[in-house]
Amino acid sequence: MRGRFITFEGGEGAGKTTQLRLLVEALGARGVTAVATREPGGSAGAEDIRRLLVEGGTGRWDGLTELLLHCAARRDHLLRTVLPALEAGKWVVSDRFADSSMAYQGYGHGVGRAAVEALHEIAIGDFRPDLTLVLDLPVEAGLARAASRGGAEDRYERMGVAFHERLRQGFLDIAAREPGRCAVIDAARGPEAVHRAVIAAVTERLGL
User: Which CATH number does the domain housing residue 29 bear?
Assistant: First the structure.
């Protein structure tokens, strides 16, 4: 039986990495073999591309170039990591997937929905997650959380509040357009409360 594909989406500092770890642990406790992965990245080639995207100056690429790089990384990730695991009956839980390109490049950089959709049709066809969990919180709170982490992978965090407001609205619009696939979760609460909401959504939508 094919496994299930769950993605976490949301702006900077939303807690995706923490919630992914907690969900994978919870799935394991229920006897479900789950693979944790991330984007950009998740395969050797995609990790190489990741460094081009998350480090360096904010003006390093324009929005369309960013989108092309993300799509190249996403295709490699899908072919080498996601699909083989799903075909082996494992569940895959990813920190970001295609919705991030729609929000960051489509809405944040103003590339537009049509361009993002066209490139995704080329890169991944009609492949979509079984469930997308959108972790939502106010932009300034998320950026404050992200700043406390430190590290070199802060290129997107430095793009300004207006950019992050656009991508937050992008994620909410994506969820409103596809309510059957997406569940919006209030991420302003503590990690345990958010985790309970995640488990409730996974149980309701996927019958965990």
Answer: 3.40.50.300
Structural domain total, the chain: 1
Residue 96: half-sphere exposure toward Cβ, Cα within 13 Å = 23
State residue 172's pLDDT score.
98
Q: Are 6 and 23 in contact (CB under 8 A)?
A: yes
Q: How many CB atoms lie within 10 A of CB 136?
A: 18
Query: Nearest CA to 20 among 170, 166, 165, 131?
Result: 131
Do the beta carbons of residue 18 and residue 11 sit within 8 Å?
no
pLDDT of 151 over the 80 cut: no
HEC profile for 68-117? Answer: HHHHHHHHHHHHHHHHHHHHCCCEEEEECCHHHHHHHHHHHCCCCHHHHH
DSSP string for residues in 51-71: HHHHSS-TTSS-HHHHHHHHH
Domain range for 88 is: 5-206
16 with 136: CB under 8 angstroms? no
- The pTM (predicted TM-score) of the whole model is 0.95
Q: How far apart are CA 26 and CA 154, in angstroms?
A: 29
Residue-wise pLDDT for 95-148, tens only, equals 999 999 999 999 999 999 999 999 999 999 999 999 999 999 999 999 999 888
Distance, CA of 200 to CA of 152 (rounded, Å): 34
Q: Kindly tell me the sign of the dihedral angle through the C-alpha atoms of 164, 166, 171, 176.
A: positive
